[in-house]
Write a structure and sequence with these properties.
Elements (H helix, E strand, L loop, with lengths): L1 H5 L3 H28 L3 H32 L11 H27 L11 H72 L1 H21 L5 E2 H19 L3 E6 L8 E2 L5 H12 L6 E10 L2 E8 L15 H14 L4 E6 L7 E8 H5 L8
Parallel strand pairs: 2-4
Antiparallel strand pairs: 1-3, 4-5, 5-7, 6-7
Helix pairs in contact: 2-3, 3-4, 4-5, 5-6, 5-9, 6-7, 8-9
Length: 370
């Protein structure tokens, strides 16, 4: 219903709105005139309807015209509002013209000879104008107040979006040092044990940080970039773990361009290595996959390591996992979910799942390539 209404041309929506207002005013004013002055219903309805319609169309036409002239001068008019001085002029002139036009149409349809404003006495003309201006001023105050409320709500929503984006940036900035400190601590140990592998690890670290610098400063990036950054990180980890770490990254081509928050999967991969594969003597397999489940994008990080039972701190209180929950809540509210459980396929280890609303992802703005 709302979509169909918004698809109508602006002039048709304005006309429909004005007709609705005119009908309400016609019924209210006609009822008052009939009850107070014992006038006949039919001619009263005819005169009141066309005078009200004439006033409404003339006032709105003059308002849009004044806003257009101001825009030609480079002045910005929000919602075609020209300001009170010009609006009062539009109300007075529009009411005069609208009454005159509506009165003439009423004369033609009823056969009466109701005097026009310019043929009336000064006192009668002023009285009619004062009465006719009341609905115009009342509706103008109503719409100005409603517009201000709508503007306040729009500003509040904008501030909420800015706050959410700032929180996401803060979470991402906190996440990067977490990963970096873990890597540097491991590098420090490796320097004393195997300088050659430490050198290779340092080269991988430099390449990884260079590749993630731009992505980590943006609100989102394509899923293919997320997997590429994971590939860089896992190559870095394989320098340290060697054959103990086996990896599989599976990303269908049709999902590659879906936008996701940068470094969303990074803490899950870190936890899988730190809490699952490193404590396991023989290491294991780390698999990262993306798939669609109906309208949901499913991201999984699966390891065949030590599992949840041997890592008490992995139940969700860690820094990285809490960051994942916070980022999902901030960006998607209740539209996304995160879970981490013991794998149930018999191979042992842990399974972390993130579910994102794929339809919402596809509606986001185009991304700047990273």
């Amino acid at each position: 219903m709302n979509t169909a209404r918004s698809a109508l041309p602006l002039w048709l929506r304005v006309l429909a709105q004005q007709l609705g207002l005119v009908l309400c005013i016609t019924l209210a004013v006609s009822a008052g005139l009939v009850l107070l002055f014992r006038q006949a219903w039919t001619p009263t309805l005819i005169y009141t309807f066309f005078i009200s319609l004439g006033c409404a169309l003339c006032i709105q036409g003059l308002r849009y015209g004044a806003s257009w002239l101001l825009s030609l001068k480079g002045e910005r008019c929000v919602d075609d509002w020209p300001g009170w001085p010009l609006m009062i002029l539009c109300l007075v002139v529009g009411t005069w013209l609208g009454y005159s036009i509506g009165n003439e149409i009423g004369n033609l349809l009823t056969g009466y000879k109701s005097a026009a404003l310019h043929d009336s006495s000064f006192r009668r003309a002023v009285t009619i104008m004062m009465i006719s201006l009341i609905p115009g001023f009342a509706l103008t105050f109503f719409y100005v107040g409603r517009s201000r409320v709508a503007d306040a709500e729009a500003r509040a929503q904008s501030l909420q979006r800015q706050a959410a984006e700032a929180q996401l940036s803060l979470l991402a900035s906190q996440l990067e040092p977490h990963m970096l400190f873990n890597t540097l601590a491991n590098l420090r140990v490796l320097i004393g044990m195997d300088p050659a592998r430490a050198q290779a690890m340092l080269d991988r670290l430099i390449a990884f940080l260079r590749a993630t610098l731009q992505a980590s400063r943006s609100k989102s990036h394509p899923l293919r970039d997320e997997f590429a950054r994971l590939g860089d990180y896992l190559a870095l980890m394989q320098v340290r773990m060697g054959a103990r770490l086996r990896t599989e990254l599976s990303l269908p081509a049709e999902l590659a361009e879906l936008p996701v928050p940068p470094l969303l999967l990074q803490p899950l991969v870190e936890n899988a290595i730190k809490h699952g594969l490193e404590p396991h003597v023989e290491g294991g397999l780390l698999r990262v996959t993306a798939s669609l489940e109906g309208p949901t994008l499913l991201l999984e990080v699966r390891d065949t390591g030590a599992g949840l039972t041997s890592t008490p701190g992995l139940s969700g209180t860690g820094f990285g996992l809490e960051q994942v929950r916070s980022r999902l809540q901030t960006q998607y509210d209740d539209g996304a979910s995160f879970s981490i459980t013991a794998a149930s396929d018999g191979a042992g280890g842990t399974l972390a799942r993130i579910r994102l609303p794929a339809a919402l992802l596809q509606q986001q703005e185009p991304l700047t390539p990273t």
